Amino acid sequence: MGDEEKKNPPPPSLSKPAATPPPPSLHKPDPAPSMPPAAGNSGPPVLQEKPIVKDEDQGDDELVHGAMAPLNTRLIAALIDGLVAMGLYLIAWKLLPAFLENLAWVFQFGYWVTRDSLPFLKGQSIGKTAMKLKVEKRDGTTMIKDWPTAVIRNLPMIIPFFGPLIEAIVLFTRDNKPEKGLRLGDDFAKTKVVVWRPEEEAAE
Fold this sequence. Notes:
- The protein has helices spanning 2-7, 71-95, 104-114, 126-130, 147-154, 162-173, 184-189, 198-203; strands at residues 133-137, 191-195.
- The protein is mainly α.
- It has a domain at 65-203.
- The protein has a two-stranded antiparallel sheet with strand order 1-2.
- Helix 2 runs antiparallel to helix 3.
C-alpha cells in the first residue's frame, strides 16, 4: 500500500483561496444632521449675520418742510429763474415795436427783482416753485406784495456778472457756518430761503 500511495499521490485540494477584503471606499458618509441642544443644555452660541439695514432717511433732514434750503437746490432754482427772466426778455423784444425794443430788459429785471413777492405765484418764484422752496421774512410775515423787501433782497443779483458770482461765493463760504443759507441779499432784507412742502406738514 505504501508503494501505491507514492505512485498515485492524492489530487490537489480544490478549496478556494481566502477572499481578500475589498479596498476601503473613498466615499465619505454624509455627516449626521446636527440636532438642536436639548432644553437646559447650553451649547456653543450660534453666530448669525445681522441684515444690513440702509438708512434711507440719511440726509433727509434738509428736506423737511421749513428747514433751510440746501445749497444745490437753491442754485438750481436760481438757474431756472434766470432762464425765465431771459425768456421774458426775448418775448418782449420780439413783441415790442422797433422803437421800444430797448425796453425789453425791463421785463427781464422786473421779474428778477420781484419774483419772490408776485401774488399770482403765491410768493414763490418759478424756480423756487419747481424746487419746492420759498423765501420767508425772518419775522414770520409774508413776502407776497412786499415789493420793497423783494427789491432789496434781489438788487445785488442784477449787477451784471459780479452780483450772481459774489452771492454764489458767499453761499459757498457760509455753507458750514452759522450763517448757512444766507446770502448778502438775505442779510440786507432780513429774509431766508426754506424748504416749502406744506402738503407734507398737513399730512402729519
